[in-house]
Every structure is written in structure tokens, then in C-alpha cells.
Amino acid sequence: MTIRYEANPPKILPDIDTDESIQKFVKKIKIISKKCDAIHITENVLGFQRVSPIEIGKIIRKEIPDMPITVSLRVRDKTEQEITEFVDNCISIGFSGILILMGDPSQTGKVDSGQIPSLTVKRLRAQGADSKIDLYLSISNKPNFSKIGKKVEAKPKGFMTQVIQDISQVQDLSENLKEFSIIPILLYPSPKNEKSAKFLGLDLKLYGQEFEELLKRTYETTGDVLLTSPSDFYGLDAFLEKSNI
Predict the structure, then answer these.
(1) Which residues, in sequence order, are CB contacts of 139 under 8 Å at separation 6+?
(2) Distance between CA atoms of 134 and 150, rounded to whole angstroms?
(3) CA 4, 53, 130 angle in degrees (round to 5)?
(4) In the predicted structure, residue 49 carries a pLDDT above the cut 90
(5) What is the domain range of residue 233?
(6) Averaged pLDDT, 29-43
(7) By CB neighbour count within 10 A (0-12 exposed, 13-18 middle, 19+ buried), where does 95 fall?
């Protein structure tokens, strides 16, 4: 049974000290690691250049050796060789899993490479990578199950979802993908996360009223939940401190 925390590495900005940003970021991870079971590190969310999850992951592995770490790998702007090197690094560092996804368009104008997540998983499995690290694909919170054949055929360890809106979505995914691990993503319903909620089409007030029950029922259904709170770290930390999950 696992409660994961989604961590977005610091953006790389010309007027910000990156080393200082990394130190602050790792400090937060050390704080929240006491209330969760694993960390998931994203890569270049929304296409903005951020510190590499590989670099961040190395530091966390050193600071919190027993904390399982999964990372996102965006294939949109990577070659096959770059993907292979990324995966090899993840394995050598000791990460537990990789979420392979297309990723948002680059904000720096980097050209798409044409790589496809499901084909990437198939290629990595053929190379034996899945015997050394878990491979995951992303999936909609309400997929058309008749149209996800390529993802299913790729045979990942499981799927990480888009942000879940209600328990029926979790139940549908769990029921239709029984042979896979399902890791639903839930957004912590803080007023500070209102921008993210609007982007996702969530009614934050209603979502907030039902959140704790949704989290409990999701956890009971899948045994694995990924919590995201992009603009309110301390709010989620306080919630987990008092939560009975």
C-alpha cells in the first residue's frame, strides 16, 4: 500500500540561483517523506526547463536512502539513445520505476523527436529493462478502453492516471485493467491549487468537500495513490500529518 508525493523539480531561470533552489526543494522532500511512502519526480512539466529528475533523484537517494523513487521520462524531445541513457541512469541510481509519457510541447522550441511512449516501453522491454525497473504509461482518467490497445499491448507494469475526478473513474480503471497496477493521481484541493483545478476542469469546492473520502476509497481500491499539490506544499504536508490513511 503506497501513498506517493509528486514533486516538480525547480525551474531553471536566468535570475534564480539553481543550486539554492535545489537545496530548498530537497529540504521539502525530506519533510514530506516522513508522511508518505514514495516520491515521484516529474520532468519539465508544461514544457518548462527544470532541473533534471536524474540529478534531483541522485540527491534524494543519498539523503533518504530507503525512499522509493519513480521519475517521469518525456520522450517527445528525446532520441532513442537519449532515452536509453536516461533509463540506464535510473537503473544505476536505484530508482524503482519510470513513467514514460509524451510530455507537453517544449517552451524552448525544441523539435519533437517522434518517439511514442507505448513503442518506447515495448523497445525497453525487449532490451530487458523491465527486469531491472518498473515501466509505467500514462492513461486518461476516463479512457475509451476499446482504443488503448497499443498501451495494453506494450505490457507496462501499470498506468499512472490523469487527475482523478471521482471514485467511479478509479473503479472503472481498476475493473478494466485488472492485470496492471493502477496509480491514480489526486490533486490536493487547496485554494492555492485553484489554477491547477481550473486547468483540469475541477470544481474545487465540491472536490474539496469529497476529497478525504475520495482518497480513502481510491487507496482501498488500488492500494497506490499519487498526490499532487503544485502550489501548496505545506498544505498537503499538514493534511498528511493529520490524515489516517
Answers:
(1) 148, 151, 159, 160, 161, 162, 173
(2) 18
(3) 70
(4) no
(5) 2-242
(6) 96
(7) buried
Angle at 225 between CA 221 and CA 228, to 5 degrees: 145
Q: Residue 47: what pLDDT? A: 66
Which amino acid is it at 185?
I
pTM, two decimal places: 0.94
pLDDT number for residue 109:
67
In this structure, the chain runs to a length of 245
CATH code of the domain containing 203: 3.20.20.220
Domain count, the chain: 1
Q: Are 235 and 188 in contact (CB under 8 A)?
A: yes
DSSP H/E element including 139: strand 134-139
**Cell of residue 187, nine digits:** 490533486
Q: Give pLDDT tens digits for 131-153.
A: 999 999 999 999 999 999 999 99
